[in-house]
């Protein structure tokens, strides 16, 4: 059988010996995969090419003497074939056509090239480990693979630590609602004094909503949230001592606790705006806020057990000391932004930033610009309308169960846990739905409007039905569904601060949450006044009207686009 041999001269400067290529098959367009260790790739024109930029072995084999080199190649279109196919004859080629020419490729099939290489008498110094480039990968060595907890995404570490911070936040807040009963008996407090103690928390809480946002945007969310947890944990531990000293000292300590918890939401919003990409924003915020709901459940569940076994001071000591564990983890694992984390991988950094650049911390707050934007006012008004109904249900629910549904106090206390559990579950469901819609191409504006409309119209519907039902079971079901749909707001207005102004996310949440806290204070007081003159139906109607007002304002003026640079 005639065989064509191409004597290919080496490239200029190449000290390799002559490369003899014996063609044993027809030439197809293939992606060569070679079993040889040679780095010289012969071209069909007859000139071997040395890629010095990628061939690190050639630096060591440059002075090698290659006495003889033979490459036997085959081309197979069968992906499963591992043998040598029978070569085709070259009789139909002319002498000129067969002399190392570029043939015209016409067969559009996927092929594989196998090469057998023989090399003889290669001399030269061995390759040292220091000559291996950084991008080289050692195959089969798994000793240096990090354990799963070290490969866990850093951004979700921040989210989980924020979740536990909010868990502790509400645990430390609701323990007073349980401990106040034995405390009032021991110190002889009347109902007016009890109400004063409960309300003293909001004195400090209102004070640091906007300040917490300013501090977080200037100094970073890590510092401010860490400060808040340490502050309110110390205040919680000192509460029994302050109560034994006297009422004024207790009121001051409760206000101090409000100062610490007041910075939590703005600081958390600031740090997540830097760490969480928009495609994961809803689910991360929903998870963090569900920590508040589960914190209330945990506090309401464990406080009676601790009080019955160790006395009422044990609640404050136990819950407050948990903050020390959290702050140790926070200081070690958390950073205010991805640019400050030296252990963050390049791949995760690219995923977080999404092509954007990290901007410098805020040095001054453009109040005039912020307050001139309609979406900002949509946030403030909607937050007020939302919290009016939410605080009424959560504050007056035990009274409603007892007076209207005729449940005893024990049953009322157990049923009070149900809305918090429902909100924790549905908040995370709403977060996953919202992020899925964003990933499928739905605009952020439409996603925020859809989720917040559910958060407004759902409670409005079930509160309207609540005044129509006649059985306790249906009333409890309506109440739970009302709070469950309310939790969709975590993927609506509560996520929108980071959408419209990520650099000022802390300040924006401080503004809107101040309106929300005022709604809770005024709504709780107004409900008592309404019940003196009217009925529960009137209470629910006021809440429904505000839910509808919030729906209209939100859908007309809100946006998911950035309006503050």
From TrEMBL:
Entry GO MF terms: phosphate transmembrane transporter activity
Taxonomy, superkingdom: Eukaryota
A single GO cellular-component term on record: chloroplast membrane
Membrane topology: Multi-pass membrane protein
Cell location: Plastid, Chloroplast membrane
The family this protein is said to belong to: Belongs to the major facilitator superfamily. Sodium/anion cotransporter (TC 2.A.1.14) family.
Record function comment: Probable anion transporter.
Name listed for the protein in its UniProt record: Major facilitator superfamily (MFS) profile domain-containing protein
